[in-house]
Known about the structure:
about 0% strand; about 325 residues; single chain
Amino acid sequence: xxxxxxxxxxxxxxxxxxxxxxxxxxxxxxxxxxxxxxxxxxxxxxxxxxxxxxxxxxxxxxxxxxxxxxxxxxxxxxxxxxxxxxxxxxxxxxxxxxxxxxxxxxxxxxxxxxxxxxxxxxxxxxxxxxxxxxxxxxxxxxxxxxxxxxxxxxxxxxxxxxxxxxxxxxxxxxxxxxxxxxxxxxxxxxxxxxxxxxxxxxxxxxxxxxxxxxxxxxxxxxxxxxxxxxxxxxxxxxxxxxxxxxxxxxxxxxxxxxxxxxxxxxxxxxxxxxxxxxxxxxxxxxxxxxxxxxxxxxxxxxxxxxxxxxxxxxx
Length: 315
């Protein structure tokens, strides 16, 4: 990983635009995941979408990494106490909760709330004793939370007092917090494991975690409607937003470093908002503009945590 970073810096001197295109492509694919999750919520139940997304992704990843996976198996088996919670937080919880939230909130709101993740990461790192937050970082966290509050309350503080907050927004916020915990504790991952092999192991844990919830969803009568649109959606989220986007992101981080790469996550709400307007006909409201401005200002103040250097973006 570190050797690749040195190579990447030399490559950067040759002014290659390729890593920036890869990082932008990952952000676009992840933004599309949110928009499709909203667009297809009447045809694909949320837990079913998460289950089949990661089951198909696991199949592809296992084929791609089978030899490296076999070689790394002893290390992975010894590290199960770390890999299980990481797989639950980063794969099992995040997308499932986002898809549940998207049944009751807009793709635009979900993407904007997602942007607060870097500030949450700083707050969790500090609370876990992995670094003391500076005054500037505390101000950044507070500013980002103010932006989250503006979005949750639709710009009307009275909504918070009357407990009128949209349940979908709350589900998305819990998902973002789960991703923040995942990113912080990714620092405990087993060292020396190939990133794609690590992803394969985490996806396997995530699928096992989602499976009983999917069984409950099916037992309650929810069904995935099998047709061309559903198949295309599942292929997109399994291959595009999972395997391809992660490969793009990982390569981009290796080439240009974490700090430069992290900035590209802010393309997600930009891409996603445009897609939501074009594909879903969603409108962009002044309270959303105010919320994202506060969130991004807060993230800028808080800075990007070092623990994010090998984490894929919230997808």
